[in-house]
Amino acid sequence: MQAMRPYMVNAAALNELRITASPARSALTGSTRPETDVWAYDSQVPGPTLRIRQGEPARITVANKLDQGTTVHWHGIRLPIAMDGVPSISQPLIEPGETFTYTFTPPDAGTYWYHPHANSLQQLGRGLSGVLIVEEREPVSVDRDIVWMLSDWRLATDGGIVPGFGNAMEAEMSGRIGNTVTLNGVVPDDQPVQSGERIRLRLVNGALARIMALRFEGHRPVIVAINGQPCEPHEPEGGRILLGPAMRTDLIIDMQGEPNGRFAVIDDFYKGDLTYALTHLAYSSAPHSRKSTPDGGLRLPANPLPEPDLATAKRHDITLQGGMMGGGALKGVGGMSRMSMSGQADIAAWSINGMSMTGDGQAGMPPLLTLQRGRSHVLTIRNETAWWHPMHFHGHSLKVLSRNGLPVPHHQWSDTILFAPKDTVECAFVADNPGDWMLHCHVMDHQVAGLMTILRVA
Ligand code: C2O
Ligand code: CU
Ligand code: CU
């Protein structure tokens, strides 16, 4: 007689999901201000945390009940181009009233997220995003696995979202930074923790433009994965966890505070007045009941990423240009503007190797590079601008080799690499996934204003 395989049954149920995008209302500030009109998945901000299993087929049906076309991009997942959610490159828009089923088998476990790739500034900025967790076959042993989806809003005193997405001045500078940061959809109160517990904390920066640098006072978090991909467990440099828009960091934190202790989590990316306490870890009065620290190390199981062969790799140079300079002039932008979905001309304020692709991407735009499939490639990316950019690659994760000439430690792989002004980063990957893949800044204003291009793998 054949043994029962209940686990397979569960897996199938787990990987068959459905989400609906629609207008909704959400109490982002708790009870301090009226509810906000948002666009949301399943009427929740953020959308539901979707959990699927590594190496098993997932089917996720998206229903569109917005009054405009949308798509969903599964940020960071290495999947076929037809499932990547880029309008006109991957698929036509999911029109109002329509559904589309995304099917893919995630090769890599880790922390990912999903968001629209159409009218991105507004659709993401009004609340459409959620966390996607690809579960390891054998997860690291912790007491609790927690997600903090961080979002940034520009709210008026009446609770509404301040209009004016796509402001030209902001697009040339740091983008639309808001005035209200939410944690899992609400301006956070204290986060309850227990003395002695071990937590896996999945941080996701889902903001349009706000960069974050988090410090956990009184704690020593260990970074175990960056942008979904496991790294060598290490403590963050200077105790600060730097998170650009679209970036994720998985931490393991041993809650070593005493019962009743309270510790701030500070975001001090922007200095001075702009430093704020995101939330506090608030210890209950009870000590944890577990007798010993969970055994087993902190290292997550490796994902099956192809190792680039640096000796035979082809080398390419990519230069990020444009944006406002001290004197107020744009630098290095040649390209053209096209009409965006809203009918306004997008302004090309940024460029990559002298070309600006604006909006949400356009079919027929020539690729910046055509990369030979199956081959290793090294990209040297130079940020010539005076601004920060979280540069995101679709379809692949890249091994980050060096920053400003210094080797990058801890075996970091990334789909989103944060560039400080004037940074040069070298990264390498095997171009094993055929298609026209977006490379863009994830500061949404920068993307729609031209900091976007296509890498063709063929
Ligand atoms: Cu998270 Cu092209 O996007
Ligand atoms: Cu992506
Ligand atoms: Cu940017």
* Largest pleated sheet: 7 strands, mixed
The CATH top-level class label of the largest domain: Mainly Beta
**CATH fourth-tier homologous superfamily of the largest domain:** Cupredoxins -  blue copper proteins
- Count the DSSP helices: 4
**What small ligands are held by the chains?**
CU-O-CU linkage, copper (II) ion
By oligomeric state, this entry counts as: single chain
Overall domain count: 3
Overall 3D shape: globular
Q: Low-confidence runs (pLDDT<50, min 5 residues)?
A: 1-12, 334-344
Number of strands: 31
Describe this structure in words.
The chain has 4 helices and 31 strands. Strand 14 and strand 15 (229-234) form a beta hairpin. The longest helix has 9 residues, at 6-14. The strands form 6 sheets. Strands 20, 21, 23, 25, 26, 27 and 29 form a 7-stranded mixed β-sheet that branches. The protein is globular, with a radius of gyration of 21 Å. With 458 residues, it is mainly beta. The protein has 3 domains: 9-136, Cupredoxins -  blue copper proteins (Immunoglobulin-like); 147-287, Cupredoxins -  blue copper proteins (Immunoglobulin-like, Sandwich), CATH 2.60.40.420; 314-457, Sandwich (Immunoglobulin-like), CATH 2.60.40. The model is unreliable at 1-12 and 334-344 (pLDDT under 50). The protein has helices at residues 6-14, 120-125, 168-171, 444-448; strands at residues 16-26, 36-41, 50-53, 58-64, 73-75, 99-104, 110-115, 130-135, 144-153, 180-183, 191-195, 198-205, 212-216, 222-226, 229-234, 241-243, 248-254, 262-267, 276-287, 314-322, 350-352, 369-371, 376-383, 389-393, 398-403, 406-407, 413-414, 416-419, 424-430, 435-441, 452-457. Bound molecules: CU-O-CU linkage and copper (II) ion (2 copies). CU-O-CU linkage binds next to strand 5 and strand 30.
